[in-house]
Specification:
- The structure is a homodimer.
- Chain A is mainly α.
- Chain A folds into 2 domains: 80 residues, Winged helix-like DNA-binding domain superfamily/Winged helix DNA-binding domain (Arc Repressor Mutant, subunit A, Orthogonal Bundle); 75 residues.
- The first copy, chain A, is 64% helix and 10% strand.
- In chain A, helix 2 crosses helix 3 and helix 6 runs antiparallel to helix 7.
- Chain A starts with a helix and ends with a helix.
- The interface between A and B is large, with 61 and 60 residues.
- Chain A binds a DNA duplex through helix 2, helix 3 and strand 2.
DNA sequence: TAGCGCATGTAATATGTTACATGATTTC
DNA sequence: GAAATCATGTAACATATTACATGCGCTA
């Protein structure tokens, strides 16, 4: 999976491993993120498969390893992209915990859910900031996914609040 | 994670590994699921830690390995449950793909999104069936998570439709 | 008697995170 | 001169999936 996503980011232009991590943080992190510990080994793997090409440069007196996508890389990326969207059920650990809340007191449950709402609101704030900054810079698809994140988190909060009011 | 979730299911009563899988399918699979290949080894691990107790029985001339939660198991489960809900960003692979749709034609993108909507609708149908069957049988928390799934999928469809209409 | 559901389990494989390790450059 | 950011990478560890392997009991 990560292989394709990295290729996707390289479709927008050559990048270092560090750049990829930054781009993820500022764009897909609300629905997909990866660590350096997976990005660098994946880039090495992609290079061995000849899907990316390495270009060592000295930029601003700082040496960088720039990766760019090869023709073969573009081909397999586009083939993947045109395959049906796999409908994978979203792994939401927060729901799992709430699922079992009948085993704790109502008051404790409400407190925990309220704390959670605070965290979700924080995430909305971060995403809104990203949305503001990227205004006009992104294509419809990319800006829609950010918008989706905000909408989704809002619906999570709404659901939490309804749950609390039903509990009372 | 799975360790706690299995303990949670055992809080409702003793179960076999197979039972746990079935229960997940009929309750949490829209936001959390596990395979036999992870359930059985986890049960063994929990037994070694003395968090569950094994009870080999012969039920309907069929031998079963029933697991029940121990006092120690209840304690660590409840301790986990009362800790703050970790706000983990949801991993949604479908969004990743759509994020890169600027690299395919608008027509192709619309077709793929429409196919996806069909799959999501199918999932809503399955969840609605589960909701119908469990009506009145579940506590507020558990029924809320099912309701959440339906609401969430509906919002995914709404978002997809808006995206399509914006594309046109 | 074939196939399905019940029931348990292992091995190979995939996939990724966290922590560690290093070192340069830039900003305060 | 300290701290933050840029930049790359490895090793230990965690976690889970898929495929395989096995076998019983029920039903069409």
């Amino acid at each position: 999976m990560l292989e394709y996503i990295i290729l996707g980011f390289l479709m927008f232009g050559e990048k270092t491993g560090y750049d990829i991590k930054q781009t993820m943080k500022k764009s897909t992190s609300n629905f997909f993120d990866a660590s350096f510990g997976s990005i660098y080994p994946t880039l090495t793997k992609l290079e061995k498969k000849n899907y990316v090409v390495i270009n060592e440069v000295l930029e601003d007196s700082r040496k960088k390893t720039l990766y760019s996508i090869s023709e073969a890389g573009k081909n397999i990326f586009l083939a993947w992209l045109q395959q049906p969207i796999e409908f994978s059920k979203t792994h939401s650990i927060y729901l799992v915990k709430i699922y079992f809340y009948s085993f704790i007191s109502k008051e404790k449950a409400i407190d925990l859910i309220k704390d959670f709402i605070r965290d979700v609101n924080k995430a909305i704030g971060e995403l809104t900031e990203i949305e503001e900054k990227s205004k006009g810079k992104l294509d419809l698809y990319r800006s829609s996914t950010i918008y989706f994140g905000i909408e989704h988190y809002n619906s999570v909060i709404k659901w939490c609040e309804e749950l609390i009011s039903n509990l009372k």
